[in-house]
Amino acid sequence: MSIRRRTSWTWAWLVIVALGLWAPSMSAQDKKEPKKKKSESGVSTPKKVFDTAAVAQFFNDPTPLPITLTFNAKRLRGDKGDKGPWRPATLAYTPPNASEPATIPIKVKTRGIWRLHNCDFPPIYLNFTSKEAKQTIFKGLDQPKLTSYCRDEDLYEQYVLQEYQLYRIYQLLTPYGHAARVLRVTYTDSASAKPFATRYAFLLEEPDAVAARNHGKILKLKGAGPDDLVPYEVALSGVFSYLIGNTDFSVSGLHNVELLGKENTGDVVPIMHDFDFSGAVNARYATPDPKLRIRTVRQRLYRGYCVPDTIYPKVFELFNAKKNDIYGLYTDKVGALMDPKVVKETLEYFDEFYKTINNPRDAKDLIINSCYGRQ
Predict the structure, then answer these.
(1) How far apart are CA 259 and CA 19, in angstroms?
(2) If 0-12 CB within 10 Å is exposed, 13-18 middle and 19+ buried, where does residue 247 land?
(3) What is the per-residue pLDDT across 309-350, written as a single tens digit (0 to 9) for each?
(4) What's the pTM?
(5) Nearest 5 degrees, angle CA 73-CA 84-CA 111?
(6) Region of residue 312 (left: phi > 0; alpha: psi -120 to 50; beta: else)
């Protein structure tokens, strides 16, 4: 047996254990007190149970939702990293069929790496675990990410809307993508009771909610190779990344990628996320990894794992079938929020992709033969 084959079997065995498809016999003590799930940091945390119907109802509404977030802005801006404390906050919104806004208590916490240290306002988590929140349209949400503006400028607000559109595209192509919902957020400082910005943002479906919707679990296992994953989904995620000009990911390193293990089959599927460094967004601050042979994020480079050549035509066929739906996202209500010049540039960028996949020679040279792992 080759080293690669042994590695693949070892990784597959770890997946089986992580999914709970195998377990040794339990002692009497084990039966009395089930073990709690361990997080990546080693801290014991209870497993989250998501109301998938409620979560779907929230994210399936494409209408931008106006809200007001109120918190101590100075304290929040001073927090660094995911280890920052949860800060008290309130969220005000007008419920459906109501004439007056309702205010619910929530908590907020900073997150992220690059944007946390380089933006005027940090990306945050919202915590909807209060009893009051569970009686609202936010029922089913736990601690989703809020992707907000980096700087209080129109250009940076466009980056948020552009990234939101890429999540919508991914959802058109596969059920394994994160759902997202756009918000119109007024940020208010609780210390002064004054608003300091009003910008578009979006909430992102949580990884465990995506897993629950797809009857699986998120696997905290690094080192996955192409033999460990579903080939079609590997090709789809790679071609999607090529469409949007995304090179800022690593499947084996779990960088901007999650792995979903299907409970009924044991299959493992990659899920892409965090697209602000992609060419389709083309953020002013985005630069490619110096190790890659590209100079700007607008230059496409295929970084997906290799799969059998026969799979790529099926993936290209899906992208062609969804082309009108993808372009239609830029002419609907959300597309109307975007700068027409940005829309034009984005669709022209997508045109280049479609020329590539529909030219057999270019598709073979730039995608199929450029995959990672070809021997």
Answers:
(1) 12
(2) buried
(3) 999 999 999 999 999 999 999 999 999 999 999 999 999 999
(4) 0.89
(5) 80
(6) alpha
